[in-house]
Amino acid sequence: MIETNRLQEGIATSLSRPATHQNLLAIAGSFRIECCDRHGNRKWIEKFDNAVVEAGKKYLLDALNTSLSAVGPYLGLISGTPTAAQADTMGTHPGWTEWTSVAARGTPTWTAASATGGTATKTHSGSVSFAMTGSGTVGGCFIVLGTGAVTTIGNTGGILYSVGSFTGKTVASGDTLNVTYSTTLS
């Protein structure tokens, strides 16, 4: 008698991907404006986020590959109730106009915190005070830097880095606007 053994094999397979690590770079910023009258009394405070526009993002990426001149950054004010767009540049920004009732764009005094341990976060903040030489509505701020950037009001040179806007607030000649910009890269 011949015995036949049947062998049954069971094969189970599974396909799994190794865990992926996402290394995303995020940049966030915000403005804080305090308006004081000519006697130093606080009239209003406004806090608002900014948008780093396409030109600003490109500038940051280019800075990784080349030596860029460290011109600026300069902080300017925006009049009215502006509308910012990602495609805005210093030469073309149809949704807003620069506030002209100040002597010049401000040069912030910057303070930087060292990058922190496991989160690799770096924060910079800068402050500027503007003496108002006219009355009207202020509705935002912008930062310009790079080759061609200057403190001259109305100049379209340089790289528009960021724009932030809020519902406009009234200012009077003699008021002071104390502006602080904070940005975090993580």
By DSSP, the count of extended strands is: 10
Gyration radius, in Å: 26 Å
Mean pLDDT: 82
- How do the helices and strands follow one another from N- to C-terminus? EEEHEEEEEEE
Number of structural domains: 1
* Alpha plus pi helix count: 1
- What structural category do the secondary elements indicate? mainly beta
Low-confidence stretches: 1-16
Q: Determine the strand fraction and express it as a percent band.
A: 35-45%
Helix content: under 10%
The CA-CA distance between the termini, in Å, is 78 Å
The largest β sheet comes out as:
5 strands, antiparallel
Mass-distribution shape: globular
**Reading side by side through the largest sheet, how are the strands ordered?**
2-1-10-7-6
Structure keywords:
mainly beta, 186 residues, disordered N terminus
